[in-house]
Amino acid sequence: MSPIDEPVPSRRRVLRGALCLGCGLLAPAALLGCDRKETAAPGPAPGDAPAPATGGMPEAAPDTEAAAPAEAAKVSQASVQYQDQPKGDQQCSGCMHFISESNACKLVEGQISPQGWCVLWAKKET
User: pLDDT tens digits for 74-119?
Assistant: First the structure.
């Protein structure tokens, strides 16, 4: 069978393959801020001095831990291909992650231009 006689894949199949490839590349960026649960057993690390005795009473949790939940880590501007110009009609001011009061983003670190754009852009719901 010559190369000319081989069947040409349909447009739908090519687009579906490109979509799967793109999602596979963006998934790590989307999961970057997820917290990882440590499964290490509680207790002192090897080489640490023993903890002082508390008379059988559990230690109180620090106030800062109880009052404020852990903030999700933000990704760098370079890792999401941030640019100061819009991409078509997509710009940060129309994104659901943009915080207009402080020109910041919920997901990307640093100052963000309202006219900027990155790959995490998602249309703001009205």
Answer: 899 999 999 999 999 999 999 999 999 999 999 999 999 999 999 9
Alpha helices in the chain (DSSP H): 11-30, 63-67
Q: Which two tokens stand for residue 69?
A: 């939940």
Angle (nearest 5°) at CA 106 between 105 and 107: 90
How far is residue 57 from each of residues 52, 54, 60, 89, 114, measured CA to CA in Å? 12, 6, 9, 60, 53
Q: What is the CA radius of gyration of the chain?
A: 24
For 96, the 3-state DSSP assignment is: coil
SS3 assignment, position 38? coil
pLDDT value at 59 more than 50: yes
Q: How far apart are CA 110 and CA 99, in angstroms?
A: 12
pLDDT of residue 38: 54
User: What does DSSP assign to residue 107?
Assistant: S
